[in-house]
Amino acid sequence: MAEVINMPRLSDTMEEGTVATWLKKVGDKVEEGDILAEIETDKATMEFESFNEGVLLYVGIQEGETAKVDTLLAIIGDEGEDISGLLKGNTSEDPKTEALKIDEPSVVNTSSKTEEALPEGVIVVTMPRLSDTMEEGTVATWLKKVGETVEEGDILAEIETDKATMEFESFQAGTLLHVGLNEGESAKVDALLAIIGPAGTDVSSLAKNFKVNSGSDATVVEETPKEVEEKKEAPKQDVQASISTSNSGSNGRVFASPLAKKMAQDKGINLSQVNGSGENGRIVKKDIENYTPTSTGVQSSTPVAKFVASGQEDFDEKANSQMRKVIAKRLGESKFTAPHYYLNVEFDMENAIAFRGQYNSIPDVKISYNDMIIKACALALRQHPQVNSQWFSDKIRTNNHVHIGVAVAVDEGLVVPVVEFANEQSLPQIGASVRDFAKRARAKKLTPAEMEGSTFTISNLGMFGIESFTSIINQPNSAILSVGAIVEKPVVKEGQVVPGHTMKLTLACDHRTVDGATGAQFLLTLKGYIENPVTMLV
């Protein structure tokens, strides 16, 4: 069955996009994960990946043309499939810019039966794609409640994506009639998020029967008499028992609002001992405020106090966040598709230590060893562009610009903000950027655009005392540098054993793009900059 592909929103501020390059032609076979096109947004030119497979039957926007988000971009289906019906409803003379336009970010249904089912003025709002890699989202917080008035531009909710927690703005005005996901719940992109319309409109039937068949094809379906009968006969489950665990030590998942979870953590309350009064037994703020431990319950969240005496096994479970899911997927794909090899070196850091001390003696200036490594890598990459390249299934891209991704650890895993044009920035400029990124990363305030476009990555665990380690390449990049701690140790200089300071680094390379000799030459150039850092200022 043919699938309609619309112009994606590849950044949170993107309103329209320009097709820079089509990487597939009409008639070409498309696999899930193939790059369909390169799309120029308001922030960068980005690759657009297909989530469908089949044959590219129609291209709605030609190279160099610009169109609004959700304008028809392409149609993918079976070879020879008739798609005239998908284009027939277009009233514009130019189907390339108007066909199958979708109101941001709600869904326009394609069947006449569905259109009749929508009450007048009612808008269905679906889970938006807030980053180019986002496949599902989690509602962190609702900023509007059912029954409240929503103006165009109001923030409806905060949504956790695979990269950050972002504010989701309403593009419609009306009353919030229905919420499809509670706080803490996750759903695929284009799943029902909310319904907005005139106050007092009954949308219960619409919400009940809303289904998403594919990325952007939403329909309202009516249940057959048989399905209704089956639902009537289905045994009822004890919702409270499945949502809230009892004092017996059941390991069922506990549903609680983010605020309730934080309050419980601050007060040392074990959520499994709290009965929720919210919808479907959900634990909310007042449940924590009114909680009184029972004679058999414990307030401490430490499992030892609860179970050691009886020798009973105990564990905690936490649902995977969107970020953790994507980290697992991407690193797994990189590790098992890119042929990694590793080059280990040890640099003399005496001159670097002295250089940093002198540099930081300048008033209002503070640089770190990490800043020096970023700058040195950027300069070395300009001399060894093959290490600054990227692998794609049909080509190798050698980048003439240097955008260095800096791995930052956060509670949910790892994010990689990007220092753009690092070779052109001064050491203080690099330092200021990295400190700002790290601060906002831990507060979940980084935007997707700030974590995209790296050509090389640096991961530094030296501050944790790690002397040596290896990293997984951040694809499609060709290499990643792992930086260890500076260690004081005996070293041999001019035939004498003397005190010294050294640092170990490991370069992981993709053998498809970087040969061993190329990687070794890059490290030799890097050694020159690190062991003689004044050369970075020349």
Indicate the topology.
Elements: E1 3-6, E2 16-22, E3 29-30, E4 35-40, E5 45-49, E6 54-59, E7 66-68, E8 72-77, H1 84-88, H2 95-98, H3 112-117, E9 123-126, E10 136-142, E11 149-150, E12 155-160, E13 165-169, E14 174-179, E15 186-188, E16 192-197, H4 204-209, E17 210-212, E18 218-220, H5 225-233, H6 239-243, H7 258-267, H8 285-289, H9 303-307, H10 322-337, E19 340-348, H11 350-359, H12 369-383, E20 389-392, E21 395-398, E22 404-406, E23 408-410, E24 413-415, E25 418-419, H13 427-442, E26 456-460, E27 479-493, E28 496-510, H14 516-531
Parallel strand pairs: 22-26, 26-27
Antiparallel strand pairs: 1-8, 2-4, 2-7, 3-6, 4-5, 6-8, 9-16, 10-12, 10-15, 11-14, 12-13, 14-16, 17-18, 19-28, 20-21, 22-25, 23-24, 27-28
Helix pairs in contact: 12-13, 12-14
Task: Describe the fold and architecture.
The protein has 538 residues and is α+β, with helices and mostly antiparallel strands. It folds into 4 domains: 3-98, OB fold (Dihydrolipoamide Acetyltransferase, E2P) (Beta Barrel); 112-220, Beta Barrel (OB fold (Dihydrolipoamide Acetyltransferase, E2P)); 239-310, E3-binding domain (Dihydrolipoamide Transferase), CATH 4.10.320.10; 323-537, Chloramphenicol acetyltransferase-like domain (Chloramphenicol Acetyltransferase, 2-Layer Sandwich), CATH 3.30.559.10. 24% of the residues lie in helices and 27% in strands. The protein contains 14 helices and 28 strands. The strands form 8 sheets. The chain has a 6-stranded mixed β-sheet with strand order 19-28-27-26-22-25. A hairpin with a 5-residue loop joins strand 17 (210-212) and strand 18 (218-220). The protein is globular and about 85 Å long. 36% of the residues are buried. Mean pLDDT is 81; it is low at 89-116, 212-251 and 297-306.
